[in-house]
Amino acid sequence: MTKIDDVYADYELLEADDRYRLLIDLGRALETMPEPLKTDATLVRGCSASVWVYPIPREDGTLHFLADSNAAITKGIVALILLIVQDRTPQQIVATNIEAELAPFALNAQLSSNRTQGIPNMIALIRETAERLAG
C-alpha cells in the first residue's frame, strides 16, 4: 500500500486539476466494498455525498477498513484517510493525529466545502471504532 508521505510528495508538485485526478485515482484504487455492506449502519453522517466505512478486525489485532463513496473525489478523500489508518492496531489509530497527517494536503483550500464537510465525520467514525476496540 502507498504511504501518505509518498502521495503528498506527488500531490504537492501538481496543479489543481491534476490534484483532483490524483484523488480520483486513489479512490479508484480502493478495495471494492461489497454492496451488502453499504447500509445505514456503515453510512457516514454529515457528508454531502454518500460515504460508507466498514471496519474489519483482523486476527493479528489490526483493523482493515472497506470504504466507498458515490462521488469520485470524496472516494479519493476516503482513500487518503485510509492510507493513514489502514491495517494498524486500534491503539495505533487512536494515537494517530489523522487531522495533522491530512493537514499538508490543505484539502479545505483545494476543494469546495461540500467536498470536505464530511471529513471530520469520517475521521470521527474511524477513531470511535478504534477507541471501542482498543478498550
UniProtKB/TrEMBL annotation:
SUPFAM superfamilies reported for this sequence: SufE/NifU
Record domain Fe-S metabolism associated: where: 15-128
Family: Belongs to the SufE family.
Stated name of the protein: SufE family protein
